[in-house]
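User: Okay, second chain of the day. Same drill as before: sequence in, structure tokens out.
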Amino acid sequence: MIRLRGYLPVFAIAFLFSGTECSLEVIDINLKDGGEFGPEKANVCAGQVYLLKLVGLNTQDSNSVEHAASVVGYPDLPRWNFIKPHKDDLLLYGSYPENDTLDVQIISTDQETFESTDRRFQLNVLPCRKPQANFEVEMKFMNYNIEDIFGTDVLQRLEAVMQNLWSSSQRVYVSKVASVLDVGGRKPIDPRDKEGFIVRFAAEQNFSSELRGLELEVRQLRNRVPCPRHYKRTSVEWRFRELGLAPDWCGFRLFKGTVAAQRVIPPEEIPIAPLPPFDGPDLDEMPRRTTTRDIFVSLLVPLVICFALLAGIGGTSLCLYSNDEGDGK
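Assistant: Same drill. Structure tokens below.
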């Protein structure tokens, strides 16, 4: 649940990352109140990163509005799809592995009046390339927030660096991007530090010898608990430092066959055998325990002990008193 101020925008900006070129497409989306679907649609590429920048949220002063995004009929967005506040805007970004049409629902709730507004639009995931890549490289960078890289050439320059490292592939592109917090990371201890982001690069050809060698370099870091972020610099560290990026090599991973693993499979209904009826015992048949003896013992034993102590103390006092009188005579 994201808390922002204002209401939803009247247009969105979609950034589609393709190859080593970053193309910008502006999509006008007139999100109307109510639950009816209008002609508002956004077209994105399957398996590629997209960004819908919903602007103009702060349209009313002193109105705190909470936004929640999901697919109609489901409690949340699909995997690798997220929403993120950015100044007065709301970023809807991510990637979807297959061709599909998603009916995105954004519910805005005013925290002062508790009035809610339901706005919807269609997200069309189109087949921009065939076949999709089966190899991915995941990296983590800790000196940027996810909202800082959009609207800049950071991803474009990262693609160029990865293209040089992945020399066995003719085309490398960004397939996924997410904040570290979106994938289970924790906020930094120092509030001045950045949250960091995770990016995945995809290609159709197998990993190059440079990437496999880099995997061997960073593998020794994973044996340490916790994994040291600043313990070791790799042989390709300078390539990312030139871009002003600080990679966390503990988050370097190579993935194979990712398309099959990400494919959305409709859930199957598994028949469940009916439970046998429960026939409990009759209350009259259940054994009962009398508590009279317990009550008697719990009262009698302390009283006997008290009387014994009093008798002992009293007898001792009388003996001492009689001795004192005898000595006085």
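The helical segments are 146-149, 154-165, 209-219, 237-241, 258-262, 292-328.

User: Thanks, on to the next one.
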